[in-house]
Structures are given as structure tokens and as C-alpha cells.
Amino acid sequence: MATIGDRADATGPAPSAIPRGYAGHKDDHLSRLHKVEGQVRGITRMVGEDRYCIDILTQISAVTHALQEVALGLLDDHIRHCVYDAVRADDAEGDAKLDELTLALRRTLRL
């Protein structure tokens, strides 16, 4: 089953064989995501324990910020590797990557 970001065609390398732009920061991204996962479990526990609304909202804000930081890191990696390499390699490929980046930014910023 293909996932978002698996763009290889039938003649290209398998999606898992393509080095991702975030490969150099993968451990950092995973570490942050594991922390977010723990924070979300904590929020679930807080709601189950009928904790004070403002305390829960504070934790939700922290999780939201942490996810935004992961997103910014991934966008930075994408620009510095995937987009940069595509623009250097071929005008059409570069244009496609820039269009993809614009769409990703729209989704991230909810425009």
C-alpha cells in the first residue's frame, strides 16, 4: 500500500529505497514524535482523571507546538534536500517539487 510521499513510478526505485530528505534528522524527528505521543497519552489520562480544564488546554497547546516544530523540521529538510536537488537536476522536476512544496505549505498553514 502506497503512502503519501511514495512517488516512485514503476520504472524507478522502490519508495523505501529512496533516501528521504530527513534521513539525517530522522532520529531527532522520531524522538520528538515519541515525546508527543507520551504527551497525548498524558492528556488522555488528565481528561480521564477530570483534571482542571486550563491544565489540559495548556498541555494541548504544548503538543500542538511540538507537532509544529516537527513539521517545520521536515519542511526544512524537504527544502534543503528534495527541492534543492530537484531544482538542480531538472527544470520540470524542480517546478514539480516547488508546486508540491507550495501545496504542503498550504496544508500546514491551512490556507
TrEMBL record:
GO terms classed as biological process: negative regulation of DNA-templated transcription
InterPro entries: Metal_Tscrpt_repr, Metal_Tscrpt_repr_sf
Disordered as annotated region, ranges: 1-25
Sorted UniProt keywords: Copper
Keyword presence, Cytoplasm: no
GO molecular function: DNA binding; metal ion binding
Keyword Zinc: no
Family from the record: Belongs to the CsoR family.
The protein's name: Transcriptional regulator
Organism: Streptomyces aurantiogriseus
